[in-house]
Amino acid sequence: MNTQHIQIQLLLPQSFSSRNHQILSPPQRLHHKKFTTFTIKRTSLFSYGGSGCSRSKFRCSVKDVEEQKQKQQQQVVKRAYPFHEIEPKWQTFWENNRTFRTPDEIDTSKPKFYVLDMFPYPSGAGLHVGHPLGYTATDILARLKRMQGYNVLHPMGWDAFGLPAEQYAIETGTHPKITTLRNINRFRTQLKSLGFSYDWDREISTIEPDFYKWTQWIFLQLLKRGLAYQAEVPVNWCPVLGTVLANEEVVDGVSERGGHPVIRKPMRQWILKITEYADRLLEDLDDVDWPESLKEMQRNWIGKSEGAQMEFPILDSDGQERDVKITIYTTRPDTIFGATYLVLAPEHILLPSLVSKEQSKRVEEYKDIALRKSELKRTELQKEKTGVFSGGYARNPVNGEAIPIWVADYVLGSYGTGAIMAVPAHDSRDQEFALNYDIPILPVVKQDDESCSEGTIINSSNVTTGLDINGLSCKEAASKVIEWAEETGNGKKKVNYKLRDWLFARQRYWGEPIPVIFLDGTSESVPLNETELPLTLPELDDFTPTGTGEPPLSKAKSWVETTDPSSGKPAIRETSTMPQWAGSCWYYLRFMDPKNSNELVDKTKERYWGPVDVYVGGAEHAVLHLLYSRFWHKVLYDIGVVSNKEPFKCVINQGLILGEVQYTACKDADGNYVSADLTEMSGEYHRESIPEEKVIKSGDSFVLKDDPNIRLISRAHKMSKSRGNVVNPDDVVSEYGADSLRLYEMFMGPFRDFKTWNTSGIEGVHRFLGRTWRLIVGSPLPDGTFNDGSVVTDEKPTLEQLRSLHKCIAKVTEEIEGTRFNTGISAMMEFINAAYKWDKHPRTVIEPFVLLLSPYAPHMAEELWFRIGHSNSLAYESFPKANPDYLKDTTIVLPIQINGKTRGTIQVEEGCSEEEAFRLASLDEKLSKFLDGTSIKKRIYVPGKILNVILDRQNVKKKGQLPATNVSSLDNCLPRKEFLASMPASPF
């Protein structure tokens, strides 16, 4: 289209900006005071927004133009600098130049820093703004350490096997590999858009055969050492779905998918003997730099306790001892005389043999109900303890008393021996049960404190058995009972653990195949030879549950049926797969040497890079993932694969980012609003969501703007699709840029604390970045663009500038290394505030600041570094170091007196001259009203102590008033001249 220049008259406000409308000539004032005329390109004439413009009508309403102007101004405010150009530019540069690649061969004389994010699972939903919190933190640490001269290993990969992908595949008929690879691509794209400095050359995924070959190899090492075995254990079986379900798929006794009843059913499974390493897993916690709360969670999960294993003979119907005994474990053998009944788990192996005929039906009914409950519900969530009498009795070995045997679901078959001796006088759980079922309660400890861990034993003597512990302390009595039990064959000392061996098999398709075959017609297992690895997962079109309990892999007949290579006999492969935890147990080692096809990791590389220096992830992985990883690592340590006892030197749990605060009002049956503090009293109320613009804060509460008497319910929830509070980082990046998102997530609050997302809060850090950009690059041109260079000068910096810089360096460095990222940002904001007051911005001050900014906002920092005059990336520039000489506080507070009366104070440097002190006092807002326009008789100055200004008595002004003088004298005062010069020219 040809461009024609035409002169037209548009009725536009004089304040209308020509920046975005291709206006060629400057505006010319018309006689009408409200409008201006422009020369406009014809091509732009009809593209101008506003419903008032058309080919035949060039007159636009003022309202339309103002609306368009407001939209443009909003866009300019949000786009405070050209992040939309800068960020893609530098992401492309980093990728093309492989800026963050860690070479295979490095200078090992340099210190190393291995920083790692917990292995993410690439879900179909992609990232939400909660995910980049930890990733940004590790990236800041990685960038800092590179600039401090470390060899940095900062990789990323995918924990890509697992249940969610398989469930989605079943529902949609799409192979899980297709959806998983698609999700990985989406995650990778999103992470790259945020500028994380990962070494993408080391990217790994658990679904790749080159990776899970070594997961299978580790399983074979466990098998060789007796740490992997098969046993029949109870699993979650759903008869309607015809499949075994993982614990997380069962909610309140029914399947999460479909709501079908789930029962506990014994099945033969692969199990890993993690209990073999229980003591080492406990002891070595003392050697790692982890949060104490996290270590305590692991200690509680392992649950080591010392006590006694005691034998209670079962009695027949005639009261005679049978040749079968119930074994119990107790941490309080000192209270055994107070054991008035036994409790067996519903799944206890001896239960069928001791139930009386009269009680058999009731016991079976109770078992059926109990086995439908999850272990969590049976133990922690079930407030009321239930049970049923078995009809059988056992003999208490220390006093010969016959005591009843009960069945109760608060005892688990998987913990201890699956049976307990109940001492209702000294255990609240047992006491509640005894009171419910009218069972005798016998005190045996005279308590010295409420815990009854200390006290004196009573009612605990029997002549027939020869055991008397009356009068002993609890500790002494426990030792004597154990000694008696071992001498008489009634028990022994025992150390027990809450930790259970790890159920390792899953009746699922989408997982690592277990490298074991079974000889045809037998249950004898034969491990594959290591040279046959990897055993790859066969392609299946039908991966739905079989309905029989057999795993989906059993459908791959040609893959399942094989031959034992050593004997030539027919064999079948194991059709269960490994759990999702398997690949994530050791992936951190593979990042050290991801392309090695001959061994899991090269020993030289492992000795240099291990252990992981900083490992960042959510607290939800505090127990299982970290415990399983530590277990596998110790096995690998024992066989010489790794050189350190622990995999992760320092673990940091980032806080959760909750969705934006949601406000809810309560209404009564008549539709009237009711204050939330009154709803707790009585009645049922309807809840209504209230938009933020209708809410105001009142004290510590939120209330309706239109009726402050109505207090609202305000709460932030974890981000989830169901709540509709998920914030997509792509949207934030599009509107504010990746650097703003990174900076905001670090600025929200302490890294380890819970935080609430507030999209409007990001505007503050976005403005900070915009101010930083304009300070260094300069103000925007009339068309909204910026000059290519910068306004940085080569002048020598002042002492004030150097002090501001080095205080900022010291603070930012200290706060990054302490993962107090929010206060590091505050220090940079203070520097920028100070720098805006300077007339000049020397290179030797601005360049170090850009380097300080770079770990937080790498895209902007790279661009600023380039515009200042550097041709290379700043990624490996030396991080600034604070000079202690500039950190000393050499300022003092100097009192200022007027005619002997103290009127205020000022900050001055030590050794400040009288003239400089007086100049600073004259500039002080509070003091200037006493000094401006007055005659000074003399000044009395004591350096570092005081400045006393004596005014001419005839010209002393009253506080806040001008002295009595003529107008001409006022005109000659400097403040008056400045005031007149600042006034705009008369419009008349």
UniProtKB/TrEMBL annotation:
Task: From the UniProt record, list the reaction(s) this protein catalyses.
Answer: tRNA(Leu) + L-leucine + ATP = L-leucyl-tRNA(Leu) + AMP + diphosphate
**SUPFAM superfamilies to which the protein is assigned, alphabetical:** Anticodon-binding domain of a subclass of class I aminoacyl-tRNA synthetases, Nucleotidylyl transferase, ValRS/IleRS/LeuRS editing domain
Q: Name one GO molecular function term.
A: aminoacyl-tRNA deacylase activity
Give residue ranges for domain Methionyl/Leucyl tRNA synthetase. 118-250
Residue ranges of the TM segments: none
Domain Aminoacyl-tRNA synthetase class Ia residues, every copy:
716-745
Which EC number(s) does UniProt give? 6.1.1.4
UniProt feature coiled coil, ranges: none
Q: Name one GO cellular component term.
A: mitochondrion
Q: Which UniProt keywords apply?
A: Aminoacyl-tRNA synthetase, ATP-binding, Ligase, Nucleotide-binding, Protein biosynthesis
| The Methionyl/Valyl/Leucyl/Isoleucyl-tRNA synthetase anticodon-binding domain, residue ranges | 802-910
Which family does the UniProt entry place this protein in? Belongs to the class-I aminoacyl-tRNA synthetase family.
UniProt name for this protein: leucine--tRNA ligase
Q: What is the lineage of its organism?
A: Eukaryota, Viridiplantae, Streptophyta, Embryophyta, Tracheophyta
